[in-house]
Amino acid sequence: MPIADASVWADGARVADPVPFDRVFETAAERGGFAWVDLVDPTEAELRQVADELDLHHLLVEDVISRGQRPKLEPYGDTEYCVVHRVEARGDGDDDELVGREVHAILSERCIVTVSWHGDDAPTRVRERFERGIAPLELAPRTVLYAILDDIADAHERLAMAVHGQIEGVEDIFFGEEHPPTVEIYRAMRRVLTLQRAADPMSDVVSRVATRVGDDQLELRRHLRDVDDHARRTATRLSGDRDLLASMLQLASARVAERQNDELRSMTEHQIEQNDQTKKVTSWAAILFAPTLIAGIYGMNFTHMPELHWLLGYPFAIVLMLAFAGVLYLVFKRRRWL
Questions:
Q1: Contact 204, 227 (CB under 8 A)
Q2: Does 286 lie in the same domain as 177?
Q3: Same-domain pairing of 150 and 185
């Protein structure tokens, strides 16, 4: 069985002697403490073995096996089932990808079972924190759950601050360049949404855990309230970043549309100028065509052309050419082609 750790905690510390898994719950009851079993990447058969040992509700077992659960806290009699999502950065630098991981916790009065996948090290860090001491809190299954929630909320806060710094860099580039960095904006938006899906429900889960803490555990309530404050602060920061990125995308779209309008306007002006030039060339070609036509007719020198032997034939041809050209010029000028 992929048991990362199986331990018994009693009298404010971890029991030093190794305890076999099949006796961990019995030993915890004998010592008056609690058992903590940490499973990493368990199979369905292994999960059902633990479920049979703890007599867990079949719906709870199905949720753990199927995974893909939303963050929640569900009571099953004396047993509580908690699911939270933890986001971690995969990669280095500003192009790292944020990936969500599920952490499941099943706790009762004398035991807690944590289940994680893909080598999530949140339970390991919490266990090391417990081994160093977690005063003034009393060691108990619900304290383990608090520590897991605290670790995840702190991780989300750190990631939210890192993402916020990346967004500020994108914002500087956005207002400093002619072409908006839309690809970087979309990448930042994807990081924010990934982190927001995990961070937003945290406050509700922490609040529900706090409501199930007894009046005799005032210090634990205070610590849970602090975790809730961190979770709310992270959610507020992410919400602001998401709105900022959405506004930047809208502004980027407006800038692209404005640039396209400028290009279209320039093309239209160029086409208008070309049309004006075409009209002028056409007009002058028509004006010159009339004298050329007259000159061509009388230049054929046929024998029976009375105007060739007429005394006023030459002035008549010149006047006719000028008259036709003048009339066409006035017509085109009136139509503003010239």
A1: no
A2: no
A3: yes
The answer to whether 12 and 34 have CB atoms below 8 angstroms apart is no
Higher per-residue confidence, 226 vs 275: 226
CA dist 100 → 24, 93, 112, 158, 203 (Å): 31, 18, 23, 15, 17
Model confidence, pTM = 0.74
- Tokens found for residue 258: 């404005």
122 and 58 fall within a common domain: yes
Number of domains observed in the structure of the chain: 2
Nearest to 151 by CA among 236, 62, 230: 230
How many angstroms separate the CA atoms of 65 and 46, rounded? 10
Helix (H, G, I), strand (E, B) or coil at 131: helix
The pair of structure tokens assigned to 200 is 């937003």
Please give the residue range of the domain that contains residue 325: 274-334
Q: What is the DSSP string of 147-215?
A: HHHHHHHHHHHHHHHHHHHHHHHHHHHHHHSSS--HHHHHHHHHHHHHHHHHHTTHHHHHHHHHHTS-T
End-to-end CA distance of the chain: 94
Q: Are residues 188 and 142 in the same domain?
A: yes
256 is written with which tokens? 């692209």
Q: For residues 205 and 224, is the Cβ–Cβ distance under 8 A?
A: no
Query: What would the pLDDT profile of 119-175 be if each residue is shown by its tens digit?
Result: 767 788 888 888 777 777 888 899 999 999 999 999 999 999 999 988 888 887 777
Rounded-to-10 torsion of CA 58, 62, 63, 66: 180
**In contact, 15 and 9? CB cutoff 8 Å:** yes
| Local structure of 113: helix, strand or coil | strand
Verify that 62 and 196 share a domain, yes or no.
yes
